Structures are given as structure tokens and as C-alpha cells.
Fold:
Amino acid sequence: MTTSEETTAEHTPGSEEFVAKLVEENMGWATSIAKSVARAWNMDWQLDGLDGGAYEGLLFCARRFDPARGVPFRGYARRRIHEACTEEARKSKSWQRGTGANTQVEQDARELSAKLFNVFPELRSGYLPSNDSSGGDPVRSSVRQLLTSASLMAAFEESGSENPEIAFEYKQLIGVLAELEPVHQEILYAVYYKGQSMRKLAEEWKIDDLSVIREHKEILRFLSARIEAPNSRAGLRKLKIRRGLRTVAQQLRKAQHEGSFSKFLSAAIILLILTALFSVTAPLNQHMAANSTETSRGILW
Structure:
């Protein structure tokens, strides 16, 4: 029996004694996570406050840990502690004072890289996103996934830009996303627009999180091919739904859910039509008002 199991047997989950015991037993382990994150970000784990992030993450998980779920405490808490340390690293002054950090481009790039760590947790351990497809260069495919993911993040970040070129590119992107199946649209909408984790989305849909993760990688692979060669066979083919998500896809179809980006596109089209109608009717109304004014003047005279 492990120390965590002994703690569970001796104390009531959620009690102060239970939380204090879990924190005491796993503080060294949480510190090792803070040190590994500090090495990856070229920081000092104490001076840059990563130890505080590890403690906060550990305390958060200890208070909410439920042994009845059958998941070991460290398996339950590892991701949360890692994310807490990464967040502290991102906010630290030494990271913000890095080379070129005074430029807006560098700051945006650092923000983007921090978000990529959340979408692809394996990057924290030094691994590229796995490639499930057969054939081709796996490293090249993984890099394409990262570039496509970063492009989506940047597009949604700049969606409110007044630059006409950026607005046009954003409209084109929404058009491509609106052609996807509703279930695929919802994955991208949750991860990149709402900032939701794939694990949380899988919990909402009550399916295995690996199904969402694998489908997400297939979507990125498809979008990469579509953007690079829109008229090629790979760019024109329709993305299929994997077995793990077919139940969710059927539920969305029964609910007549057209997809979040399809709604965006429909709303944009309606807005364009209304704008066009207003641009036509406004001068006409002005002309009619001018004529009525001249008529009333004639009557008065």
C-alpha cells in the first residue's frame, strides 16, 4: 500500500488532516515538477516563483481529490501542478524581460507558445505531438500540426482587427471551418475560441478524452492540407468522423446543430445583406425627405 493509499484509509477525503497529509507526502514530487518546468523555460524554480505555483496546484488538487474515482493522486494532480508552474513561468519577470520581449511581436509569440503547451501537454516533456497516420515523415507532420494550431490561435486573437487584410483572411478561415462536420467545428470552437481543454470537452460529451485528442489531430492534419493545397485531392476530400465521436455527431445532427462556425458565417452573411440594404435605402430615404421638404415649401408659398 502506497503512502497516498494509507492517507486515504486513515483520514476522511476533504478534511483538513487529509489535505495536509497529501500535501506533506507529495510536496517533494510537486517540487520536482517545478524544477523540470524551470529547466524547460531556462529559469530558477525558486526565484521565479515556480515553487509557489507547484504548491498552489498541489493544494488545489489535495482539496478536491476523491479516492472513490479509482485514480491515483499523482495521476490526478500531475497535469494541474504542471499547468500551475507553467502559468507562474509565463508571468515571471525574467521571462518577460527575455531577449526581444519589449517588442509586441515577441510578447505575442510567447503568449502563443504558452497556449500551445496547454493544447499539446506532451510538449512540456520534450515530445512533439504524435502522428497517428501511416506514411510520411512523422516529424514533419507533427510540426505541421503545431503550425496549424498556432495559426488558428493567432487568427482568433486578431479576429477583431481593423486591418482589412487580416479581416479578409479571418473570413476565409471561417469559411473553411464552416465546411467541417458540426462535431469537428465544436472541437475547434471549444479549444481555440473558448480556451477549453480537450479533456474537459470529453467529460461534457461523456466520451474517452483520447477520442477527442485523436480527432483534434486529424482535424489539424486536414486543415493543413486544405490550406497548403486547396485544390488538391487531399484538400478537396471530406474529413471523416472517427468511431469514438460518431455518437456525439449523431446527437448534434438530431438536435439540428449546424456548428458554431457555420452560425458565424450565417450571421456574417446576414450582416452583409443588411449593410447592403441600408447602403441602398439610406440615399433613397434622404432623396424622398428632400423632395417632401421641397413640396411643403411650395405649398407654403
